[in-house]
């Protein structure tokens, strides 16, 4: 891990190499958490507004449900990243490992974040499922002023959810939970480093 940028290394230390749960076609999903060394940034997309898509318009990581041909969750995440943003993770990235699975509250499926580090020069080319994208520096994720709450009407009730506000992107739900887990890993490492150097 000594070749990685410090904050990306902090994330990598907590990742698993083995498949964290059983892959079940269409019943489990994978997302690609893609880091690049510049600014220790990671890729977020805005899903296109599409009728019938429960995640229409949401901020997310590239990803989708596991297909029969996917030999691993990382393979599923790589396939989705190539389809959605034109990034070939098998060629231009290094697989760092798996975060623990998260259950999507709206559909109940289990989602496995597969973490990659870009090693080559890549350009993002969004397909019709993606309306925009953004590379977010990790320093912005760690900034307290970028944390907020998101209000959503659920039936007759209004519910509030933790969120990130990142350059006009309001990130909540599953993506917020994954990002918060990353922030915890990085903040814990930052604190440990600060204690050692003070």
Low-confidence stretches: none
How many distinct domains?
Answer: 1
| CATH class group | Alpha Beta
* Secondary structure: number of strands: 11
Helix content: 25-40%
- State the CATH superfamily name: Nucleoside Triphosphate Pyrophosphohydrolase
Broad structural category: alpha+beta
Encode the helix/strand succession as letters.
Answer: HEEEEHHEEEEHEEEH
Shape: globular
Major sheet attributes: 8 strands, mixed
| Proportion of residues in extended strands | 25-35%
Question: Which secondary structure elements does this structure contain, and how are they paired or packed?
Answer:
Layout (H helix, E strand, L loop, with lengths): L5 H8 L14 E9 L4 E7 L11 E2 L2 E3 L7 H13 L3 H4 E6 L3 E2 L6 E9 L11 E8 H5 L4 E8 L2 E10 L2 E3 L1 H25 L1
Parallel strand pairs: 1-7
Antiparallel strand pairs: 1-2, 1-4, 2-3, 2-8, 5-7, 6-7, 9-10, 10-11
Task: Characterise this structure.
This protein is α+β, with helices and mostly antiparallel strands. It has a single domain, classed as Alpha-Beta Complex (Nucleoside Triphosphate Pyrophosphohydrolase), CATH 3.90.79.10. Helices cover 28% and strands 34% of the residues. The longest helix is centred in the last third of the chain and has 25 residues, at 173-197. The two termini are 24 Å apart.
Quickly describe the structure.
The protein is α+β, with helices and mostly antiparallel strands and 198 residues long.
């Amino acid at each position: 891990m000594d070749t990685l940028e410090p904050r990306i290394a902090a994330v990598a230390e907590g990742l698993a190499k083995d498949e964290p749960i059983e892959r079940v076609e269409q019943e489990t999903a994978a997302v690609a958490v893609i880091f690049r060394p510049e600014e220790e940034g990671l890729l977020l997309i805005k899903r296109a507004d599409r009728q019938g898509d429960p995640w229409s318009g949401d901020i997310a990581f590239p990803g989708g449900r596991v297909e029969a041909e996917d030999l691993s969750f990382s393979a599923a995440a790589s396939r989705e990243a190539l389809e959605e943003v034109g990034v070939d993770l098998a060629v231009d990235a290094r697989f760092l490992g798996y975060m623990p699975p998260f259950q999507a509250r709206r559909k109940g499926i289990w989602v496995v974040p597969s973490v990659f580090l870009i090693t080559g020069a890549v350009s993002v080319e969004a397909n019709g499922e993606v309306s925009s994208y953004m590379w977010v520096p990790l320093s912005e994720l760690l900034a307290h002023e970028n944390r907020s709450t998101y209000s959503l009407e659920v039936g007759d009730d209004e519910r509030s959810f933790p969120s990130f506000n990142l350059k006009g992107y309001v990130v909540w739900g599953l993506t917020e939970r994954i990002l918060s887990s990353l922030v915890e890993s990085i903040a814990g490492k930052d604190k440990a480093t600060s204690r050692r150097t003070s």
